[in-house]
Write a structure and sequence with these properties.
Helices cover about 35% and strands about 15% of the residues. The chain has about 575 residues and is of the alpha/beta class. The longest helix is centred in the middle third of the chain and has 22 residues, at about 285-305. It is elongated, with a radius of gyration of 31 Å. It comes from Collinsella aerofaciens.
């Protein structure tokens, strides 16, 4: 389960995993496999990123280069032009932004613009990328992109049958072959080859031996593709050569290597794969596959640690769809618990991938969200911490429903209550009683009610203010919606004609929630104005020791009392 003690430090943010975290996919590209072109316009991309935050995303993953099968590499300058304005705008709204890139220059620029995470699909095999991240404080995602099929085997598989009938039949075959050879001597030579000599197995391009089929008929060698060198042509899946990590591969440039690997991956997925014997199992053996995936992830994580990147900044991702067939992806997903045991935060990035379509029977990528949720749920149960999805709103609803039943998890939160219209203290007490009726929520403590000067909009009556401490099992955005319902029921006017900081019968602000950091237009956690509000910090002193120190520790700037707004001027009684 995601409910564990791991934390992930990403710049000024720290993500805890007492519940799974949602990463929303934002492709600022014209050709991504499921949503290409939908958010290519920068304004549209920014609006969509904010909408994902308001729908429940904890992280927004911004990418400017599609890495789908058959993709065309993008120049770093063009990639930066696409993503930097989007990164800057989302970071300004308090979002935790991840930059999905394999180019060092783009990663550097994005971090300067406010990105907190570098998501490298080549797994930090570029020493320049390692050199950059070791000098920053950003979080890093190490992804495995490569083929995981077993190395080629040039010898035939031997099958043993110990029955007496098989022994007798074998001896008879040997005798018949020997008799035929004796009868044909002396044989005439044709073109340097003896007639009757056993047929030599054909070799495929690249030197891989094509074994005989079970029925004794040779499978024709696959036709070579004009644009692909013979050495790159796919061998049978059961005998595909192992691909070395990019860091140890001498010749190709990283971008060319990744594009070529993804082209081969697509051909492997679609091609008929001959085999020397009938398959006895529905999936390939997991051991060699997981040795490659987990070995690469462990090695690259250690490389980063040795370079100076702290362990709590590293997240790992097995890279579903990158050089892997549907069968291999399923094997890897079933071994999620083993990958989680490595001790790093674990990403599940299966959204709308080809193997999800294969297991669900859904051809259209954009229609695979329901199947994606099912695969993600299995990964969460096995220990995945972060789920990367396209449909944030749908998955957040799915996760909230599941988590409420599967994981009892009350967390502490603080709600600020204020009123300066009508019977102020009665309004505050009514709000307290209604908060206690919110599902999966209870009121655990209340401050006294204080009178304060109006803040921001000073030409209005003084306020009555208090802080309510609650315990809740709801997600922050779900809790916020419940608080807004209470405001509406008690007569709060939120229409456009109402002043933002003007008079109101009731005002409820979610200030802070245990383990939650959130950005966006709808909700910011911790509340960005806590540190300057005297009418919040003074009532909090009734509930905790030294609230200023508490919030400073949580990354909030807290002003000195004389520099705050809405100063407390009196006490109005107990809640």
């Amino acid at each position: 389960m995601a409910n564990d003690s791991k934390t992930w430090r990403c710049g000024k943010y720290e993500l805890s995993f007492d519940r799974p975290r949602i990463m929303g996919v934002l492709n600022v590209t014209p050709d991504s496999f499921s949503d290409g072109g939908e958010h290519f316009d920068q304004d549209a991309a920014i609006e969509y990123g904010l909408a994902m935050l308001d729908a429940g995303a904890d992280i927004i993953d911004v990418g400017g280069e599609s890495t789908r099968p058959g993709f065309t590499p993008v120049n770093p300058d063009e990639e930066a032009r696409r993503v930097l304005p989007v990164v800057r705008a989302l970071a300004k709204e308090g979002a935790i932004v991840s930059i999905d890139t394999r180019h060092v220059a783009v990663a550097k620029a994005a971090v300067r613009c406010g990105a907190s995470i570098v998501n490298d699909v080549t797994g930090f095999t570029d020493p320049k990328m390692v050199e950059f991240v070791k000098t920053s404080t950003c979080g890093v995602i190490v992804m495995h992109a490569g083929e995981v099929a077993a190395p080629a085997r040039t010898h035939a598989t031997v099958q043993l049958d110990t029955s007496a009938a098989a022994f007798v039949a074998e001896k008879a075959r040997e005798a018949a072959v020997e008799a035929a050879r004796e009868a044909e001597k002396p044989a005439r030579r044709r073109r340097g080859k003896l007639l009757g000599e056993p047929k030599v197995e054909a070799k495929l391009p690249g030197g891989v031996v094509q074994p005989s089929l079970p029925l004794g008929e040779s499978e024709p060698a696959p036709e070579s593709e004009p644009e692909t060198p013979a050495a790159e042509q796919a061998a049978p899946a059961a005998a595909a050569p192992e691909t070395l990590p990019a860091a140890t591969e001498a010749a190709p440039e990283p971008s060319d290597h990744l594009a070529a690997m993804m082209r081969r991956s697509a051909r492997r997925e679609e091609a008929y794969v001959p085999t020397s014997q009938l398959r006895r199992f529905t999936l390939p053996d997991s051991a060699p596959i997981m040795r490659r995936v987990m070995g690469f992830l462990s090695d690259q994580a250690r490389t980063l640690i040795h370079a100076g990147v702290s362990r709590d900044r590293i997240c790992i991702d097995p890279g579903p769809g990158f050089g892997k067939t549907a069968n291999e992806d399923i094997v890897i997903q079933r071994e999620t618990a083993k990958m989680a045991s490595l001790g790093y935060p674990l990403m599940c990035a299966v959204s709308r991938k080809r193997f999800v379509g294969a297991v669900s029977g859904v051809t259209e990528a954009a229609a695979r969200d329901a199947a994606t949720f099912g695969v993600c749920l299995g990964a969460i149960q096995a220990g995945a911490n972060i789920v990367r999805v396209h449909d944030v709103a749908g998955f957040a609803q799915f996760l909230n429903g599941y988590w409420a039943v599967a994981e009892p998890q009350p967390r502490r939160a603080f709600v600020a209550v204020g009123s300066n219209l009508g019977h102020r203290c009665d309004n505050i007490r009514a709000a307290r009683n209604m908060i206690a009726e919110i599902p999966l929520t209870c009121v655990s403590n209340c401050s006294r009610i204080y009178e304060s000067e109006p803040a921001y909009e000073t030409r209005q009556d003084t306020f009555a203010n208090a802080i309510i401490e609650i315990k809740t099992e709801l997600a922050p955005l779900v809790l916020l919606d419940e608080l807004l319902k209470i405001e509406a029921e008690l007569g709060r006017d939120r229409s456009k004609k109402a002043k933002a900081n003007g008079p109101r019968t009731i005002d409820l602000d979610l200030l802070w929630m245990d383990g939650e950091t959130h950005g966006g237009k709808k909700l910011r956690l911790p509340h960005p104005l806590i540190g300057e509000r005297d009418f919040v910090l003074v009532p909090l002193e009734d509930l905790m020791h030294d609230p200023a120190r508490f919030f400073r520790y949580n990354g909030v700037e807290v002003k000195e009392p004389e520099d705050r707004v809405g100063h407390i001027v009196g006490e109005l009684g107990r809640m």
